[in-house]
Structures are given as C-alpha cells and as structure tokens.
Amino acid sequence: MSISTLIAENQPETFSFTSESEAEIKQQIAKYPAGRQASAVKSLLYIAQKQNDNWIPMRAVEAVAERLEMPVMRVLEVASFYSMFNLKPVGKWYLQVCGTTPCMLRGADDISRCIKDKLKIASGETSACGKFSLLEVECLGACVNAPILQVNDDFYEDMDYQATARLLDELAVDNKPEFGSVIGRQGSESEDGATTLKAVKKTASRSK
Ligand code: FES
C-alpha cells in the first residue's frame, strides 16, 4: 500500500498542541537521555492522535518532527508503520478485530461477521453513520482471553457474535460498557476456573 493512500486528503491548515498535551510531552521527553529525544516519537504521536479525535494530521506529524528534531519523513515512517496510528479521520468508536491464529481459532470470524452484518463495513472502512471504523489487525497481545475486539484503547475479551452485537448496540447510543472478559474471566484463568500445576500433574499421571 502506498503511503499516500494512508494519509487523509483533506488536511487541516494548522495544528498545535494544547497545554495539557504539552505537559504530557514534557513528561515523555524527560524519560530519555539528552540527545535521545527521538525515542519519544511514538508517545508524541499518540498524544497528538488523542488530542485530535483519534487521527494524526500531517501538521501534527510536522509538529512532532520539529519537537524531536527529526526529519518529517522519519516520523511519518513510524506513524504509517503501526496500526495504532490513524493518518485519516476515523469514527468515534475505532474497532480493531484481531485476526491472528489464537483469536481465529476462538471465533474471531464471528466478531467480524457481526460487525459486517450490523454496520455493513469491512476492514479500513467507516460506517455510514460515521460513528464506527473497523480495522483487522494482527495479535493484540491478549491471546489468552481470545478472541479480542479492541474499542479505542480498551479490550473486550472472550467475544462471540452475540456479545459483539450487544456491544455495538450500546456504542451506537454512546454508552461504552465495562471492558475486559465478557464471560467474567479473572486474571486470564482457565474457562473452567482457576487451577494449579499440581492439578495438571495429577491429571497427567492418571492418564498414564
Ligand atoms: S492472537 Fe489475538 S490477541 Fe493474540
């Protein structure tokens, strides 16, 4: 995919960080030794995106580059590499469905099917109402509670078709339910409840 297809055609003329963002930027840059401020690039892009309704205009890419004394192209390379950064406007609810093997084996297809049935959108698209955008992504790092649907910054876990439908209905009326496991799993324990290695050992020795 060429980089131009990732970038919004309509760009705002200006961008400047708010005082709240400036305070966060200061904190982030202070984490790195002098001369290594470029290490804060992802943090600054995230701050810009958060400030700007979940997408990063080119003026913000330039502002980050200037702040970190980096070439604009290097900042753009980072922003276009990670799926967590949007270079085009997205809906209020940004849905990311994990399609990697553990989620796929646990029913990720049902989440995607439900989103397509209810919102009529495919990966990379925004719903007609403008409220939802969808992206199919690789492993979100929460495989143990697969399958995962990420909504903005939060993970909804152990999802199936019905749970996805309920969640979309709530989001449609701007009500964001509690995130986490929809079947109430705690601490990524087994679906049959907490267990220990001793129990596993007993089961293994009985089967010999
Ligand atoms: S495979 Fe989906 S979270 Fe890892």
Which residues form runs of ≥5 with pLDDT under 50? none
Q: List bound small molecules.
A: FE2/S2 (inorganic) cluster
Distance between the termini: 53 Å
Query: Could you say what the CATH topology of the largest domain is called?
Result: Glutaredoxin
If classified by CATH, what would the architecture of the largest domain be?
A: 3-Layer(aba) Sandwich
Largest sheet: 5 strands, mixed
The CATH homologous superfamily name of the largest domain equals: Glutaredoxin
The order of strands across the largest sheet is 2-1-3-4-5
Helix/strand/pairing category: alpha/beta
The beta-strand count equals: 5
What does the overall shape look like? globular
DSSP helical segment count: 9
Beta-strand content bin: 5-15%
Mean pLDDT: 93
Count up the domains.
2
Q: Percent of residues in helical segments?
A: 40-55%
Using the CA coordinates, give the radius of gyration: 20 Å
CATH C-level class of the largest domain: Alpha Beta
H/E topology pattern: HHHHHEHHEEEHEH
The quaternary state of the protein chains shown equals single chain
What can you see in these coordinates?
With 208 residues, the chain is of the alpha/beta class. The mean pLDDT is 93. It has nine helices and five strands. The chain is globular, with a radius of gyration of 20 Å. A five-stranded mixed sheet has the order 2-1-3-4-5, covered by helices on one side. The N and C termini lie far apart (53 Å). It has two domains: 3-81, Arc Repressor Mutant, subunit A (Orthogonal Bundle), CATH 1.10.10; 93-181, Glutaredoxin (3-Layer(aba) Sandwich), CATH 3.40.30. Helices cover 41% and strands 10% of the residues. It has helices at 3-6, 19-29, 41-51, 58-68, 72-81, 101-105, 108-119, 161-172, 197-206; strands spanning 93-98, 132-137, 149-151, 154-157, 180-181. Helix 7 (108-119) packs parallel to helix 8 (161-172). FE2/S2 (inorganic) cluster binds at residues 98, 100, 102-103, 139-143, 146, 148.
